[in-house]
Structure formats: structure tokens, C-alpha cells
Specification:
With 106 residues, the chain is of the alpha+beta class. It is built from 3 helices and 4 strands. Strand 1 and strand 2 form a beta hairpin.
């Protein structure tokens, strides 16, 4: 399997997500601001449940106690595959509003 092209990736980006390139690898990235540190932990638990069910595990970052960042890419191919976009879309469908300090997408 080969990583997705930039053109293909741009055509599939889920709402709220960004394409970033780090060390020559394309990744999906999204950030949220949570109400508290513990809300961040709850956020990660919800994402972890989806990721485990999918067998596809993103990088989860909690920075400065209330800034959540998720990065998704397929390590085995060194870039993006369709599975990354599926996982991002499933994360988008989670009910996270009670955890966030502002609306998703703001």
C-alpha cells in the first residue's frame, strides 16, 4: 500500500481537519479546546474507544491542560490512507460538546 497523494487527500478532508506535512509525511490534524484537564481525559477516552474498535490509533496530545490535538496517519505507509479519513469522520461524529469550552469548529 502507498500513501495517498496530496490531491486525493484534499478531496477527502473531513470538516474541521487540516492536512499538515511533518518530516515529509502528510497527516490529518485537528485541535479542540476542552473545559478542564479532566474533560480532556474524557475526550481522549471517547476517541480511544473509537480508535480501538477501528484498530487504528491516532496520536493524542493534551497541551497546556486544555488544548487537545489529534494527529492521524498510517505509520506503516508513512502517510495517509483511506482508513485515516474514516477514523477522522468517526471522531467528528462523537458527541463532544459537553467537554468543549467552545463549539467545535470555532
Amino acid at each position: 500500500m502507498r500513501p495517498m497523494t496530496v490531491e486525493a487527500a484534499h478531496s477527502l478532508i473531513p470538516q474541521g481537519w487540516n492536512l499538515v506535512t511533518e518530516d515529509g509525511m502528510m497527516k490529518l490534524q485537528r485541535t479542540w479546546k476542552v473545559k478542564t484537564f479532566m474533560k480532556g481525559m474524557e475526550f481522549f477516552k471517547l476517541v480511544a474507544d473509537v480508535a480501538e474498535a477501528e484498530g487504528h490509533h491516532p496520536d493524542l496530545h493534551l497541551v497546556a491542560w486544555n488544548n487537545v490535538k489529534i494527529e492521524i496517519w498510517t505509520h506503516a505507509v508513512g502517510g495517509l490512507t483511506e482508513n485515516d479519513f474514516i477514523l477522522a469522520a468517526k471522531i467528528n461524529r462523537l458527541d463532544l460538546h459537553q467537554l468543549l469550552s467552545r463549539k467545535v469548529g470555532e
